[in-house]
Write a structure and sequence with these properties.
four-stranded mixed sheet, globular, alpha/beta, binds uridine-diphosphate-2(N-acetylglucosaminyl) butyric acid, 2 domains, single chain, 423 residues, 26 strands, UDP-n-acetylglucosamine1-carboxyvinyl-transferase, Chain
Length: 423
């Protein structure tokens, strides 16, 4: 077990590269199940979630190898003609996103058996929208002993209407539809840039997809796809984390590869708070200006302010002038880390899915615990403006989604290091 050790820092300066998007790469990895052969994914970061999905693919008989790191991270995946279409409990329990094996498995092998995902650190993670869509496409499900099992002959295209634009359900159905018979239309589809990235890779593999990035995606099924060679887009949540760091610690940094066009609403919010961002064409140049000012935040599906940005924004608001109301509209339980920020002197009151954040001049370093990837990163950021030492335990949660967060923040001048819990 490891922890981050953070001391007051700033101003930051220099350049940092933003690596490949976790929430794209994980889906690109399972999409390889749609075709036999040798696939190559580029810009794959060295994060634990990639390792877990490799294990998941490995359990099915798919071999993979990884070399490099960061933007040079290369993942080679070899998919054999037949796989064992089972996602076991031990791995699904580690990563709820494993549900995105279901679409490719049903489409290509007509069978998928998956341990039912349980709750998460920020609430329940149901998969009803995924299952309903696959049923509409002809799959039949049974549930027994904690596993859901789907079977079908060839999936049949149809009209799938989501009651909510679920990100992974859109990915899952889009993947399944590439090999279905006929045309599938997804209405109220998620519009995240990672959905566009997945559609781009599927198209390179031979799929016929139109409308990815809009609320209506149309997929015309084909009989067969070929292997992929695809580079993932940059991680907008990682970029947001660095933008939060410069907002808190002050200074000016350039985030190479960051896509301002994927983060418009966030950049507007950050500007109002006091983090000024300029699109440089090769990334984002960002400067933190004092004093930070409070603004209200309400999370929404893309292109709204993503729920994944919220912990970073709350860290900024804890030391901003004024009072902000933060509303969480995606995952009702995603306020747990607030209790940790309060231990650092933050003035936050939560009620249901709302939080009232009253800015204080400075936080106070304390031992705190990371509960999930984004919460852990936000606590590290809070430590940059906390007197004394902040120790964030549970660094392994952060490693799930960030490669070497401490090292990369340090290279910009932040006082952040890692220690083993035994030290
Ligand atoms: N939902 C259902 N039924 C479903 C699917 C979703 O009720 O069948 C609900 C969820 O409970 C939630 C809402 O719909 O209330 C939105 O969930 P969505 O399906 O959009 O989220 P997700 O696809 O499971 C992805 C990211 C999350 C990110 C959310 C929201 C991946 C692997 N995960 O989750 O990322 O917070 O979209 O943008 O893509 C993270 O990176 O730390 C992370 C949690």
């Amino acid at each position: 077990m490891e922890r981050f050790v953070v001391r007051p820092s700033g101003p930051l300066s220099g350049q940092a590269e933003v690596y490949g998007a976790k929430n794209s790469v994980l889906k690109l990895m399972t999409a390889t199940l749609l075709s036999t052969g040798h696939h190559r994914l580029r810009n794959v970061p060295a994060i634990t979630d990639v390792t877990i999905v490799r294990e998941l693919l490995g359990a099915m008989g798919v071999s993979s190898s990884y070399e490099g790191s960061g933007t040079a991270g290369l993942l080679d995946i070899d998919v054999p003609a037949s796989v064992l279409p089972v996602a076991p409990y031990a791995l699904v329990e580690k990563i709820r996103a494993s549900v995105v094996v279901m679409g490719p498995l049903l489409a290509r092998y007509g069978s998928a058996r998956m341990s039912l995902p349980g709750g998460d650190d920020f609430g329940g993670r149901p998969i009803d929208m995924h299952l309903r869509a696959f049923e509409e496409m002809g799959a039949v499900f049974t549930t027994e002993h904690g596993y859901v099992e789907g079977r079908c002959d060839r999936l049949v295209g149809g009209r799938v209407v989501f009651e909510f634009p679920s990100h992974t359900a859109t990915d899952n159905v889009m993947m399944a539809a590439t090999l279905a018979k006929g045309t599938t239309v997804i209405e109220n589809a998620a519009r995240e840039p990672e959905v566009i990235d997945l559609a781009a890779m599927l198209t390179e593999m031979g799929a016929h997809i139109e409308g990815a990035g809009t609320s209506r995606i149309e997929i015309e099924g084909v009989d067969q796809l070929g292997p992929a060679d695809h580079a993932a887009i940059a991680d907008r949540v990682e970029a947001a984390t660095f933008l939060g760091a410069v907002g808190l610690a002050g200074g000016e940094i350039e985030l190479l590869n960051a896509r301002a066009d994927h983060m418009e609403m966030l950049i507007e919010k950050l500007g109002a708070i006091g983090v000024h961002c300029v699109d440089t064409g090769r990334g984002i140049l960002a400067a933190g200006r004092r004093p930070l000012r409070s603004v209200d935040v309400s999370t929404l599906p893309y292109p709204g302010v993503a729920t994944d940005y919220k912990p970073v924004l709350v860290s900024l608001l804890t030391v901003a002038e004024g009072v902000a109301i933060v509303s969480e509209n995606i995952f009702a339980g995603r306020f747990r880390y607030v209790e940790e920020l309060k231990r650092m002197g933050a003035d936050i009151v939560t009620k249901g899915h709302h939080a009232v954040v009253r800015g204080v001049p400075r936080l106070s370093g304390a031992p705190v615990r990371s509960t999930d990837i984004r919460a852990g990163a936000a606590l590290v950021l809070a430590g940059l403006v906390a007197d004394g030492v902040t120790q964030v335990s549970g660094a392994e949660h952060v490693d799930r989604g960030y490669e070497d967060l401490a090292g990369r923040l340090s290279s910009l001048g932040a006082d952040v290091s890692r220690e083993s819990d035994c030290e």
